[in-house]
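Q: Hi! First time doing this. I have a protein sequence and I read that you can turn it into a structure. Is that right? Here it is:
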Amino acid sequence: MISLLIMHAKLVIFVFLPLSLLLLLIGTMNFQQGYVEAQSNSTQTFTAPNHTFNLNYPLDWEIAPRNSTFPYYGETTALALRPIMDEPVTPLNETLFSISVSDVKRLLEDNESLPEEFLDKLVSDKISSFEDPSSTYGNLNVKLLGNNYTTLGDQPAKELTFLSQNIGTFEVDTYTIYNGQLYHVNFMGPQSKMSEMYKQFQQIKDSFRFSP
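A: Yes, that's right. Below is the predicted 3D structure, encoded as structure tokens:
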């Protein structure tokens, strides 16, 4: 009788020990898979030094350096982001997301215009520049793809989408006004890369939030 119990105990251990190890292995695999997915879907957060806005951007993007041969930063540029690239960066393969901030409170007051009217005129003037030979876009054979109302950080915004056909550059300009400041979000890059980059641009733009 005792020998039978010992055999039964050995059988139980033999059957259930591998099963417990299997369950442990499956649990570990699921944990590891979840960790990898969390890493691949995670982002970094940028907060403006003056805490006026913040946004999230992918781990495989970086803040563009200020001491660069490319003019990432102008007088009003608050942030410039670019994908991390394994190949040398040139104007022909560069993808860039930037935010510029300008004080337009005085302009709005002097012209007695509402923010919506100001944005409409701003966009209209830019579209007119596409046909002006003396402008930056005048000789680039620009094709207008979209002129829409949208939002940026839950604020009403205007958005232009266009293609500079002579150099193969796809570009999106998004404008909004918040607390007397004009926020200009610009996204540009080679047309050949837009199928893979445009989705990331939208995710970055959708994460944009004004700080209270």
